Amino acid sequence: MKNRMPLLLALVCLMGANTMFAADVTLEITGNDQMQFSTKALEVNSGDNVTLVFTNVGKLPVTVMGHNLVILKAGQDMQAFAMAAMQAKDHDYIPQDKLDAILATTRMLGPGESDTITFTAPEPGQYKYLCTFPGHFGIMNGILNVK
Ligand code: ZN
Question: In the chain, which end has fewer C-beta atoms inside a 10 angstrom radius, N or C?
């Protein structure tokens, strides 16, 4: 029995380390009536349990100045996605034939509304995010940097 202890200890240490690396991270970001995200760069570590809180701090109605935050998977063409999104008014500007391009998304928010989403940070890389309300993505975009 005695000689099994080191292995057991090693396993316990390994499990502890894994738990440590999977940090819980909360990101807060806002969008406003000037069509601006509060930040154009977010950073997390691969494997993190990410909670993202997105708030529309504007005053204009959702029909003229709605905002969402869509994070695309790696290698996606943001412009092509945004163009398809413009045609998807009935689905809050989320193109239903491109759902597999999305890593995570909030719902479309009106003034003063907030949405919280959770996801696991994917493998290291740069992931684009944007607002898909028509005409917004040119300004309302940014990069989620996963280290
Ligand atoms: Zn927007």
Answer: N
pLDDT in tens, the chain (147 residues): 455 555 555 544 455 444 556 799 999 999 999 999 999 999 999 999 999 999 999 999 999 999 999 999 999 999 999 999 999 999 999 999 999 999 999 999 999 999 999 999 999 999 999 999 999 999 999 999 999
- Per DSSP bridges, beta strands 102-105 and 70-72 are antiparallel
How far is the centre of ligand 1, averaged over its atoms, from the C-alpha of 8 (Å)?
Answer: 53
How many Cα atoms occupy the beta-carbon half-sphere of 39 within 13 Å?
13
16 Cα to the center of ligand 1, angstroms = 41
DSSP for residue 73: P
* pTM of the shown model: 0.86
